[in-house]
Amino acid sequence: MLVEALTGIDPDRLREEKARGMTIDLGFAWLTLPSGRTVSIVDVPGHERFIKNMLAGVGGIDAALLVVAADDGVMPQTREHLAILDLLAVRRGVVAVTKRDLVEPEWLALVQRDIVDTHPNVRRNFWGVFAQDDFRVSSKLSLQLGLRWDLITPPVEASNRQSNFSLADGLIHVASADNRGPNWNTHYDYFAPRLGLVPDDEALRAEASQIQLTLADFVGEIHDTHHPIDGSLYYEDQKKEAKRRARAFVKERMPKYLGWLEDVLARNRKSEGRWLVGRDRTYVDLSAFQVVEGLRYAFPNAMARLERKIPRLVALRDRVAARPRIAAYLKSERRRPFNQEGIFRRYPELDTPAPRRKAGR
Questions:
Q1: DSSP secondary-structure letter at 24?
Q2: Which of 149, 218, 221, 227 could, after both became Cys, cross-link 257 (CB 3.0–4.6 A)?
Q3: 234-283 pLDDT, tens digit each
């Protein structure tokens, strides 16, 4: 109903779908955005019995429209779909809550909070849009959805490049379902071209922006290893939770992010694997350098084990450090050392144990 109301196209083609009022197979529609661009919509089943059909439809999408009925709330398949989107690195999306007129305001507020807490990606990267009911979508909602879709979807010419990650079109964390406003990646958009730290090609600039956004997510997870509950609490107040969070981070998340950067370097033929984007160094290479340095400080044992698996990234770190002006900066008093007040903090109990020395014969 929502897709048909927004686009004028009924994506349900099968007789059984129309009779049962539910999506079984993939459906297709399109929507013209306020900018004049057209986006294609793939309508996928929500029922857990048709999860295979859902998987077939989400392989190449740039953003997701997550529809939650207010009277049902978050269902098991909602969590499954969000987990699948996370595995496919679909980071941006819009939440539409339908059947709002069927529930009391108090229940709607509970549903909204539940949606936000369902998956970290929803809180960080999804807009919130709320429909009045399943049968009528106001022009105001259509405009809201169109504007948000304009923000989170990439231009066609930028989306044709080969990549496992979708573009974010310069955005750094759009609003979540509690209706926070967007924060723009203006520092990089403004300063990087003026400092010669990004290519002139728009597609490469978009790729640099996406890598930077992924690095920002990585840094956020690094911070959460020592403050997993609340940044306003002392580390000692959440030490138990921090240990648990750090174990998962060191085992799964850190190798995943660093391995992805290694793969990006391997795929960049323009620089023969020397830089992350284009033929020369960019601001994302400088960010990757700082991340490697910070991880060496915060998790020295884990990094010592992992670095042999990421030789290109280690070489990138060395290449950045060897640049004359950066080398001079690193030796100067202007270089602020890592400490227990920043994002990268060293707590030995959060790191993996140091490798045991072999006993001498």
A1: -
A2: 218
A3: 999 999 999 999 999 999 999 999 999 999 999 999 999 999 999 999 99
- At 261, which amino acid appears? L
* pLDDT 10s digits, 167-225: 222 222 222 333 333 333 445 666 788 888 999 888 888 888 888 888 988 998 999 99
Beta strand extents in the chain (DSSP E only): 27-32, 38-43, 63-69, 92-98, 126-130
Is the Cβ–Cβ distance between 241 and 228 less than 8 Å?
yes
Would the CA dihedral through 133, 9, 144, 178 be positive or negative?
positive
Give yes or no for a contact between 299 and 254, defined as CB atoms under 8 angstroms apart.
Answer: yes
| pTM (two decimals) | 0.51
Work out the end-to-end distance of the chain between its first and last CA atoms, rounded to an integer number of angstroms. 75
Specify the residue for token string 């290449």.
319
Q: Which residues contact 232 (CB under 8 A, 6 or more apart)?
A: none
The fraction of the chain above a pLDDT of 90, given in percent, is: 35
Any bridge partners for residue 68, and if so which?
A: 97
Q: Domain spanning 2-158: which superfamily?
A: P-loop containing nucleotide triphosphate hydrolases (3.40.50.300)
Give domain 186-350's CATH architecture.
Up-down Bundle (1.20)
Residue 177, token pair as written in the block: 């379902």
Q: Which of 155, 158, 184 is nearest to 171 (CA)?
A: 184
Alpha carbons 200 and 261: distance in angstroms, whole number: 22
175: three-class secondary structure by DSSP? coil
CA dist 267 and 308 (Å) reads 19
- The pLDDT score that the predictor gives to residue 134 is 43
The residues spanned by each domain of the chain are 2-158, 186-350
Q: Which stretch of 7-11, 52-56, 100-104 has the lowest confidence by average pLDDT?
A: 52-56
Both tokens of 291, joined, read: 């991340």
CA distance 87 to 54: 14
Q: Which of 329, 310, 326 is nearest to 197 (CA)?
A: 326
